[in-house]
């Protein structure tokens, strides 16, 4: 996502020190010149970007998956999502992730919003899509992915948020977008 706004408060990179290169993320420490002429360091996580899918079944339920999230040391209920593979088109990735995690394919995939997940330290951008006209199929999760799928009502999703079973930003945003759609006929 690029901005046409002026670069107010721009921090100019003076040097970059690579710290870690993993399968999904890399970590670097940048030395920057601040707008007042001073210097500081910034720890930055680089991420290839990701997609998430708000999949609505014909009987008006949201498709979610429950899986264990090691950084949180607990299971979470989330909408289907995954990282972009090497420059992959987000729309293509959304369809792929939906099918891999749930078995569903979508007759219609529409972009809802793109947003940065944690711009204070990471460049990850997440593209949210809504999937409709779902056709069932067989899930094909990655070999290291263990998850369980269910389809829940809006009221159940809101209850899961209150209980903390849904607590990630992308799924909460999807639930609010779905609620907005039910009230106005628009996702934004």
From TrEMBL:
One of its GO terms (molecular function) is hydrolase activity. It comes from the Bacteria. GO terms for biological process: nucleoside phosphate metabolic process; ribose phosphate metabolic process. This is NUDIX domain-containing protein. The keyword Hydrolase applies. Keywords: Hydrolase. One of its GO terms (cellular component) is cytosol. Its cofactor is Mg(2+). Gene3D superfamilies: Nucleoside Triphosphate Pyrophosphohydrolase. InterPro entries: NUDIX_hydrolase-like_dom_sf, NUDIX_hydrolase_CS, NUDIX_hydrolase_dom. Residues 45-181 form the Nudix hydrolase domain. It comes from Paenibacillus validus. Pfam families: NUDIX (PF00293).
């Amino acid at each position: 996502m690029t901005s046409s706004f002026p670069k107010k408060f721009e921090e100019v990179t003076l040097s970059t020190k690579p710290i870690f290169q993993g399968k999904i993320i890399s970590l670097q420490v940048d030395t920057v010149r601040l707008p007042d002429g001073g210097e500081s360091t910034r720890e930055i996580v680089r991420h290839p970007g990701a997609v998430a899918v708000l999949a609505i079944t014909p009987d008006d339920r949201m498709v979610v998956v429950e899986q264990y999230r090691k950084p949180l040391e607990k299971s979470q209920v989330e909408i289907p999502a995954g990282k972009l593979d090497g420059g992959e088109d987000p729309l293509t990735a959304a369809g792929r992730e939906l099918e891999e995690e749930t078995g569903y394919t979508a007759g219609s995939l529409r972009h809802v919003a793109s947003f940065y997940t944690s711009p204070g330290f990471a460049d990850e951008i997440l593209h949210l899509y809504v999937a409709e006209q779902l056709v069932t199929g067989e899930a094909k999760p990655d070999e290291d992915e263990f998850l369980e799928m269910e389809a829940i009502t809006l009221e159940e999703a809101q209850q899961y948020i209150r209980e903390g079973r849904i607590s990630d930003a992308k799924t909460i945003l999807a639930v609010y977008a779905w609620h907005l759609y039910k009230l106005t006929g628009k996702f934004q």
